[in-house]
Amino acid sequence: MLRAYALLLIVIVIAAACSGVAPATPTGPSPAPAASPAPAGPPTVTITAAGLSPLEISIAVGQRVTFVNNDARAHDLVGGPEPSVPECPEVTAAGFLVPGQRAETGVFTAPGTCRYHDHAMMGVPAFEGRIIIR
Known about the structure:
This protein is an alpha+beta fold. It is built from 2 helices and 9 strands; from the N terminus they run H-E-E-E-E-E-H-E-E-E-E.
């Protein structure tokens, strides 16, 4: 009789295993999906009363640069080290920025170095920058 019960128990275990129903297992809360990084905007140069930050920025061909005026006064961005040496019309496209305003340059289409300055602060090194296009 004991042998019959053992045989019956084996048949039940095998039938349960073949039924395809997995035993319930306790699970905790699902892990949150990994957050995707926010899309990166154009590199940014901030203007304050102390000057430009950063003074030098590297970008790829095809990118723009955003200028943000966090100063209490207006700033006038001009491409080139001084008015008699015009270069980088991409920077000049950002142009005149009133306090709190932001503007983007044109698209930089060729590798090189673009020097620029704040025309209202001519000759002040803290207001002269470079964009390196790679």
